[in-house]
Amino acid sequence: MGYLSENCAFAPLTEELHGALTGFDCRRELAIQDFFRYEAIPNAKELMSKSYCFYKKDTMEAVAAFCVTSTDIAVDLIPKSTRNKLNRRIPYAKQRDHYPAVLIGQVAVFDAFTKYHLGDELMDSIKWWLKNVANQIAARYVVVDAVNHEKVLRFYERNHFWSVFKTEEDERMAEELEEGQPLRTRFMVSDLKT
What we know:
Elements: H1 3-7, E1 8-12, H2 15-20, H3 30-45, E2 50-56, E3 62-74, H4 80-88, E4 98-109, H5 119-132, E5 141-147, H6 150-158, E6 162-163, H7 168-174, E7 185-191
Parallel strand pairs: 4-5
Antiparallel strand pairs: 1-2, 2-3, 3-4, 5-7, 6-7
């Protein structure tokens, strides 16, 4: 058992729930803070993504949140080594050019709860939920555009994600970035079946 399962309720981040909750503070990453404060509900209304929240029932504080949207992995646009890694996991008769996936667009443990080190528990909960509850439309893989920072990349690797592109240079070329333009994110994938 973990902090989230013992102390929190889990629900879609609706307009009503959003209005009742406090503590959408994420000062270490203001773009994530702004997303959950101002963009999560409008995105849901436009059917662009859907956000979910763990919150303390007794205090109505937002503890952690994430948003998801549908996507796919186009195997012809990724390196051969990664394509082979994806295909090896799928029976030959079911292999295809595009694999269904879920994109985790934003993930946050809010400031008041970072002391509990909830990141791994949150990611385990998200992946379990995607596989066992939210699987009304099939998705074999979960993907993220992880912030290109060593600590963030290690977090995702520890949670069984791997980089689609072996090197930053490969990903920079695939993204068609101009020389000197920074690679802000790394495209990573995890298999929900394993």
